[in-house]
């Protein structure tokens, strides 16, 4: 019913009114389509850049974690083997006469 009245009014309008209305409607449709296309292209570019940035950050974080884990592993092995060497040095020094005999008064 509504479209029938609109169609009837358009049919009864003069060409001087119809032409600017049709041109304005055409411009609005073109601008809307252009805006939607620009939005979709910008959305795709933004998502791709965001994914690349996320991957780069995750790579940096994983490298940092790997380095930290490697350093902790090295520290643990140095502590373990270092204690063994220190114990060996203390035992060998206690057996030598470097400090001399223990004097009791």
Notes on the protein architecture:
- By secondary structure, the chain is mainly α.
- It has one domain.
- It is 88% helix and 0% strand.
What does this entry show, briefly?
With 105 residues, this protein is mainly α.
Topology:
Elements: H1 2-12, H2 15-95
What would the keywords be for this entry?
105 residues, mainly alpha, 2 helices, rod-shaped
Largest sheet features: none
Overall number of strands: 0
Query: Nearest-angstrom radius of gyration?
Result: 42 Å
Low-confidence sequence ranges: none
Provide the helix percentage: over 70%
In total, the number of domains comes to 1
Q: What is the molecular shape?
A: rod-shaped
Count of DSSP helices? Answer: 2
Order of helices and strands: HH
Distance between the termini: 124 Å
Mean of residue pLDDT values:
83
Beta strand % = under 5%
Structural class: mainly alpha
